[in-house]
Specification:
Elements lengths: L6 E4 L5 H12 L3 E4 L4 H9 L5 E3 L7 H14 L4 E4 L14 H29 L2 E6 L12 H20 L5 E8 L23 H4 L4 H13 L4 E4 L2 H9 L4 H12 L2 H7 L2
Parallel strand pairs: 1-2, 1-4, 2-3, 4-5, 5-6, 6-7
Amino acid sequence: MSFEGKTAWITGASSGIGAALAREWGSRGARVILSGRDESRLAEVADSIPTETLVLPFDVRDEDAMIEATAKATAWHGVDIFVANAGVSQRSAAVDTDMSVYREIIEIDLTAQIAATQALLPHVTERGSGHLLFISSIAGKVGVPMRTAYCAAKFGLAGYADALRAELSQSGVQVHVIYPGSVATDVSRNALTSDGSKRGRSDSVIDNGIPPGEAAKWIVDAVDKGEREVIVAQGMEQAMGEMRRTPEQLLDQVAGMVASGYMEKMKAEG
């Protein structure tokens, strides 16, 4: 597949995996739309990309701003690739964690990502082509201690994406779920603690993780190959992800239900 002349829209694009994906797609000839809350940091990433860029800053929790951004993005050059990447992690035991932390993480990592995708769906389905990427986590495959809210959100995002993939299997739109392990970003430093405050420090496993640029190349190569589940991890994390990988035959079976008219039958039954 050539990404030359395609348009990739990435949320959470001011740093980490999002910024690296923006640069990787730009290096392969794609135009790039960058979204996040920090306009100045988005502009810095945009300046490092060799192709045409559009900076659309907004908070993913602001649905009105997200809908306005969607209108601008689709009017620019259309959207061929959408990456639901914005998110926040957690470092706190469930017994200590205030319920407000659960609500905030699920709102950012799950509900807002679904809302952004739902706003874009009419555009991509009308075009009959494109790629929707959902950045889950190995913690979206395996329940990890000190991350109960994060795991709940990332498992949920994968579930939404899997069901959406089946629904869109006859449309020409491909859905990819990305399961990163430890990538050398600020994810731990920005993680929420039990009272909702930022942790403010990183983990050695994250600091020694996969470089973001390497992770981005891994992801884009997998999209190029049409992979539906992409486990971006090494060592024990990779092994855990592979143990929980959804069998390809099961993904095909669920898509086959749609091909055989399952959705039409369900709609007819009310």
